[in-house]
Recover the amino acids of this structure.
């Protein structure tokens, strides 16, 4: 492959090629995203399977059978929602522990732990004989997700050359979407396998988890993590290997410098609340709130349930979620292609308008025509599916991947793992909230729930316009100088040496 010089406007130039080895590392680590995506996609289908409901949630099963049950309320059950949401609550706690593991043991070891947790969790959920086994299994799986989601995006941002960081980092999200799609397909097939289809559906999470665990034996640790742990020689060796050139001095020096100043910081969590950390912290946490309040997981978790609500039969509903899952994957490629060309901001802004329109139309149709009893006519139900696809498309090339990319690239090294951990933790918290509350909100707000999401989309669009700076092509350790100190609003936190404290 030809040598390319990594450049960006007024940023240092680092030498390096895009080596096959880096691509292999990206591919293997992205299986952490696959596991996460599979977890997201599988629970909606499983909770719509009668065999599963009969065994663990007989009340919901009975209610579902009653033909005149209120459309908006037939799945409203706190325990059923807990089955989906418990995973995210556990992941929330796990991400804080995982940040310590990332800095003390490294990104690679944290990924291996993620794989281990996932495998144990799968065993418990797929083999569950009692509700408690099911929930305990979901909690352990949640630890897998928390560890994986903490380590993988950081790993990707740190091994990628600056010029391609966005695209390579989005491979995490790409694998999340592939995981969701495969889960949708598995749901579709397993719903016809009686009585143990749901066990197979849950058990297959072991495949990506196993690939992550075994595959990670073959990948490197990131140079930053090695230098952070005083393994300088090894760090330089790895940097040469992943960049494919002999002279990596400039980039290596910048990593060493960043880690040296990081070492002065005794308590990275305290440092996180200093003025200079405010911009990445506020943006990193709000991005998670916004990402979840687009309403994406109302669709990802409950697409089959939602499609049944508007009047599709069981199979048609599962199939429609396969369609939305495929759109999700394909549109993420658009993000991979555009993020380092058009930049982050334009994607966020375009999709806010795009998602606003799509969710708005869904809300209007449901408000007008979906009454608690009865269903939409065919044409309207199809328009709803098209709008769901348009909405998913917008999310998939913007708030989805950028919710992970931006927090992984904007913190300085001294607060990178702790800052990113808080972002992951917020993501899991808001994911938990939506998973736990959506079906109840749907029941009480009915079509109004879509206008709730539309309102949030307006807020996030405005926030992106005013407060999210462009980080395309800026080396990961140069954000302070090149981005924050130049931003109309955030520069106020960098006056009079405040950033040195
Ligand atoms: C989000 C998930 C979401 C997925 C959809 C991810 O970025 O964090 O909550 O389900 O995108 O593709």
């Amino acid at each position: 492959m030809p040598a390319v010089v990594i450049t960006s406007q007024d940023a240092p130039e680092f030498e390096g090629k895009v080596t096959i080895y880096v691509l292999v590392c990206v591919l293997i680590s992205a299986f952490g995203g696959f596991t996460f995506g599979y977890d997201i996609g599988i629970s909606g289908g499983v909770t719509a399977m009668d065999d599963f409901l009969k065994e663990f949630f007989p009340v919901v099963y009975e209610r579902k059978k009653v033909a005149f049950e209120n459309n908006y309320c037939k799945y409203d059950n706190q325990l059923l929602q807990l089955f989906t949401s418990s995973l995210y609550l556990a992941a929330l706690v796990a991400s804080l522990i995982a940040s310590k593991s990332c800095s003390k043991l490294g990104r690679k070891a944290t990924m291996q732990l993620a794989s281990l947790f996932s495998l144990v969790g799968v065993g418990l959920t797929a083999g569950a004989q009692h509700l408690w086994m099911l929930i305990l299994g979901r909690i352990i799986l949640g630890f897998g997700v928390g560890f994986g989601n903490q380590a993988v995006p950081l790993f990707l941002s740190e091994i990628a050359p600056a010029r391609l960081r966005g695209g390579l980092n989005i491979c995490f999200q790409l694998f999340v979407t592939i995981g969701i799609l495969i889960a949708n397909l598995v749901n579709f097939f397993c719903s016809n396998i009686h009585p143990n289809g749901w066990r197979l559906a849950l058990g297959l999470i072991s495949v990506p988890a196993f690939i992550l665990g075994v595959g990670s034996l073959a990948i490197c640790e990131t140079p930053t993590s090695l230098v952070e742990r005083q393994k300088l020689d090894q760090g330089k060796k790895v940097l040469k290997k992943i960049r494919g050139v002999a002279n990596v001095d400039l980039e290596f020096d910048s990593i060493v410098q960043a880690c040296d100043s990081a070492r002065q910081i005794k308590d990275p969590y305290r440092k996180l609340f200093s003025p200079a950390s405010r911009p990445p912290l506020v943006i990193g946490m709000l991005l998670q709130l916004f990402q979840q309040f687009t309403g994406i997981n109302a669709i990802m978790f409950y697409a089959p349930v939602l499609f049944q609500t508007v009047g599709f039969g069981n199979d048609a509903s599962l199939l429609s979620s396969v369609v939305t899952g495929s759109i999700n994957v394909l549109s993420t490629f658009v993000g991979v292609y555009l993020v380092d060309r058009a930049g982050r901001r334009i994607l966020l802004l375009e999709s806010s308008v795009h998602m606003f329109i799509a969710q708005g139309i869904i809300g209007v149709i449901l408000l007008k025509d979906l009454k608690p009893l009865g269903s939409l006519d065919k044409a309207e139900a199809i328009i709803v599916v098209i709008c769901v696809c348009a909405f998913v498309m917008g999310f998939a090339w913007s708030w989805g991947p950028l919710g992970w990319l931006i927090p992984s690239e904007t913190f300085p090294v001294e607060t990178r793992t702790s800052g990113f951990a808080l972002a992951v933790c917020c993501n899991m918290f808001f994911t938990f909230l939506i998973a736990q509350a959506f079906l109840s909100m749907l029941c009480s707000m009915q079509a109004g729930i879509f206008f709730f999401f539309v309102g949030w989309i307006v807020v996030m669009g405005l926030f992106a316009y005013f407060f999210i700076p462009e980080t395309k092509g800026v080396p990961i350790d140069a954000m302070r100088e090149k981005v924050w100190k130049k931003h109309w609003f955030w520069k106020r936190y960098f006056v009079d040496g405040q950033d040195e404290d």
